[in-house]
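LOG
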Amino acid sequence: MPDFLDARKLPSDLELRASAQQPQQRRVTDSLKVTERLNPFELEKRKLFVPPPETGAIIERHRVEIPQIAQQDPYFFDFFTKELARNFHTLKAQIQHEHRQGNVYDDGLTERITGIAAVQTTNAVFAKEVELMTDELTGMPNRVYQERVLEFWLQKAMEGGFPLTYMEADMDGFKLVNTLVGHAGGDELIKASTKIGKSPLRELEVVGRKQGDELFFILPGVGLTQAAATGQVIADRSKAYLINEVPGEKLAPDDQISLSGDRKSVV
C-alpha cells in the first residue's frame, strides 16, 4: 500500500498544527532579529510620518493631500495632522448643529462638508505656520523654527533614547565681506552658506538661519563625533567658496573669512 494511503503513516492533528505554526514562528523570529539590529533612531523614523489611526482615517476617507513639506519634515507632519483632526472635530460639531437647526439630518452630507471645510481651514493655518518659520532672505528655517523644532526633537530623543546634536556657526570676518562686496554681496554669501551647510546633511537633518550670519543645525540621531565630521565638511566647503567669491587682492594679509561654530549634544 502506498504511504499516502496508509492511515498509520499520516501525520496527526497535533503534528499538522505544529507544522503550520513553524513558518509563522520563523517570520516572527526574523522580524524580531531585524528589529534588534535597528538602532533607536531608525525605530523612531518608522513612526514619524504615521498619523494616529483616527486621523489616518480622516486623511484616507477625504483623500487629504498632505503638503510636500509636511511629507519631509516630521515637525510639520505632526502639526498638520493634529491641526486637521482638531479642525475636523470642531467643524463637524458646528455643521451638525447648523443642519439640525435647519432640519437637515443627512450624515453623509455633513461628513462631506466637514471634510472640505476642515482641509481648507487646516491648509490656511498650515501655510501661516510655515511662513512664520521660514527665513525671508534664504528661504530656510528661521529662529522660530529653531526654537520649536529643537523642542520637538528633544522630546522625541528623550522618549526614544537616541542622540540629538545641535550646532551653531557664523561667518568669521563677515563685516569685512560687507565692506568688500557690499551688503547685497553679503546677503548672497549668507544664502550660499545655508546651501553649503545643507549639502552634506542627511534626511531629517536641518540647517537654518538664526540671525545675521548665524546658522544653526539640528541633527537628530547624530552623536558628537559624527557631528564634528559633518561640521568640518561644511567648514571646508564654506572656506573654499568664500576664497573664490571674495577677490583675493582686496584682502589684507591678516584678513580671514571662514565659517566656524560650536556644537553640543542635547541628549
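LOG (cont.) second protein
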Amino acid sequence: MAEFVQKIWLTFLKEDSSLLAVRNYALKKLPAEGQTLPVKPVTLQQFQPVQTVSPCGKLCESCDEFCVPWNSHFFGMLGDCGHVCKVEPDGHHVNKSKGKFFDEFRKTVDCGKIWSSPHMDVPGEHGHPPRLSDLPKELVDLYTYGGKVMLADWYLEQKYYGTNSTNSPSAMVHHWKRKTIQDWIKQARAKKLSGNYGIGETNCLAAGLDDADLKGKSVLVIGSENPWVEALCLSKGAAKVTTLEYANLTSSHPLVDTVTPATLASLVSEGKAPSFDAVVTFSSVEHSGLGRYGDALNPFGDLITMARAWCLAKPNADLVIGVPVGGSGQSKVRFNAHREYGAVSYAQLFANWQQMTSHHCDQSVYTLKKLDVI
C-alpha cells in the first residue's frame, strides 16, 4: 500500500506543476525564520471539500484548487471529519456559548466515520516533512483558523510514525518494564517523579488528576514517550491504564496496556472498542497533524484526536489535559514543532467538554467533563 501511494505521489510530482507553483508562492510571502506570518482572515465555516484522488483539490465548488504536500488523503480527511473540523458556529451542528475559562463549543461528531476513515491515520508520503515555506496559502488559512491563530517557523524532523526500530530518531522506549513503572509509582506518591518535564510539571498534572479522582477508573492515556503519565495515574488509584500511541509499544505491567490508532479503529468498526472513565494527555496532541513525527499534514489533527477520545469516553467521563500555553495567551502554531494554545485554540480543543478546573504551569493542566451529544 505504501509503495502504491508513493507511486501516485511521484507521478503527481512529474505531471502536475501546481505543487511547485504554490510552494513558490508561499516562499515569496514568508518572513524570516522565527518571525510570525500575518494571514488574511477567510471564512472557513462553510467549506465543503471536493474530494479527489490526488493531493490537489478544492474546499468548495467555487474555490480555487490547491495542492497539499505530503498528503493525498487530505480532502478525503476533510470530508470524513465533518463538523469536528468546522471552527465557526452555524447554529445547528456547531454551537458556541460562554465557558468557564474559554468559549465552549458543541459540535456534532460522527464517531463511526471519524474512527473508521481511511484518510486520517496516514503517514507522510514522500521524503522529509514539509516546511512552512512549502504550505499553500489555503492550507495556512486552515492551520490559523482563518488568521485567528499566529504562525511561526520552527522546523524539526523526528519521524517515528509506525516504526519499531530500536534506532528510531525519537526517544521512544518501546518496551515498558513492570519494575520501571512500579518504581515511578512510588516516586509519584512521594511527589518526586520527574517524568519528562521535571517534578514541577509532573505535580501540576497530578493536581489535575486529583480533581478528576481516578480511584477505580479505567483511563485512556493519549501519547507517551515513556510511561510516567501511566505511573502517575496508577499512583492516583486508576484501576487500568490503556495508552494510545502511534509507535509500537509493549508493556509488561499488568495494569498498563498499549494500543495503536489502527488497532483501536479496527475495534471500533467491530463494535468491540473499550470505553473509559477518564482520558489523560500531557504534551502530546499539540503535535498532531504537523508532520514532525512523520504523520501527514492535517490542520485539525489535534481536534480529531480529542473528538476520538470523546467517542470512547463514558458519559460524564473526565478529561485531564496539559498542552503548551501561548505567550500572552495567544494561540500560535510553531510549524512544524508544535501548537501553543490560547483562548481561540483552547476553545476548539475542548469542544464537547465542559471546563471544570485549571492548574497553571509551563503546560497548564485543565480538567473537563464530557458533555452529551448535541
